[in-house]
Amino acid sequence: MTNRAIGVFDSGIGGLSVLQALRVKLPHENFIYIADSGHSPYGERDETHVLARSRAIVNHLVGQNVKALVIACNTATAVAIHLLREEYPELPLIGVEPALKPAVALSKTGHIGVMATRSTLGSAKFQALLNSMTARATFVVQACDGLADAIERSVETEDTSKIIALCTQYVGAMGLLGNNSGQIDSLVLGCTHYPFASEHLRTLLGQDVQIVDNGEAVARQTQRLVQTMQVEPHPASLAAPGSVSLFSTGPPQTLQAAARRWLSLTVPVGQLSF
Ligand code: DGL
Questions:
Q1: Alpha-carbon gap, residue 129 to 6, rounded angstroms
Q2: CATH assignment of 6-96+215-271, given 3.40.50.10070, 3.40.50.1860, 3.40.50.1370, 3.30.499.10?
Q3: CATH number of 100-212: 2.60.120.260, 3.40.50.10840, 3.20.20.370, 3.40.50.1860?
Q4: How far apart are CA 168 and CA 185, in angstroms?
Q5: Residue 42 CB less than 6 A away from ligand 1
Q6: What pTM, to 2 d.p., does this model score?
Q7: Atom of ligand 1 nearest to the CA of 116
Q8: Residues with active-site annotation
Q9: Per-residue model confidence as pLDDT tens digits over 15-68
Q10: Looking at residue 4, what DSSP letter applies?
């Protein structure tokens, strides 16, 4: 019996930050990763586009017989996960959302910055999450137009000047940072692309501000879910390292270079044309 793969997708390379955490927690699982780079970025597009693309990718991955699916994109989760759950009631679906709760637990000043895409911040799902947390902390939310796209483009050009300029602009707009009263001491990265800018963010933030992302929490949730799944007996092959298959709807070399650079993965990238 073969061990069915876990599907993972994002608008582009950002979901690799989640895949990285998944591979640490679930080293024997097989993963199929799709970067929808031919139709990205999602963060400044309307909900109809993000929903249509999420549907098309989930439909494709279901056709590949995945046993579970991780939406490694805050924007697609915010816009589409509730509808996809209705459409695929049998499919275990895990999403990502900005890690407000973990940030509240970590913050000493009670002032938390949130960087995310415009679509994520404007979604009803995020607004509900934010409303449920506002009694416990003060949140400063910052839409980061263009940042995911700049991270995506820098992979090939290796030119990080736009990432640095945008991070400087957006971090600067959030107000005072530090661990004194009234200062933001925790910064939530609410887009899976942003961990790949954390080196530049760290330079801007200094050492007193903690960066909070949710890759590891999503991996833990996926691990729990996979462990409780009774859909197939654990095959002997689970003792072997799992495989990763990479696909892109855009230029394969972007995903290939990002996977090599950030995950030390040197597998070929298949081209998808839907
Ligand atoms: N990586 C995505 C997210 O987590 C979206 C980036 C984009 O396509 O704008 O929101």
A1: 27
A2: 3.40.50.1860
A3: 3.40.50.1860
A4: 17
A5: yes
A6: 0.95
A7: 10
A8: 73, 191
A9: 999 999 999 999 999 999 999 999 999 999 999 999 999 999 999 999 999 999
A10: P
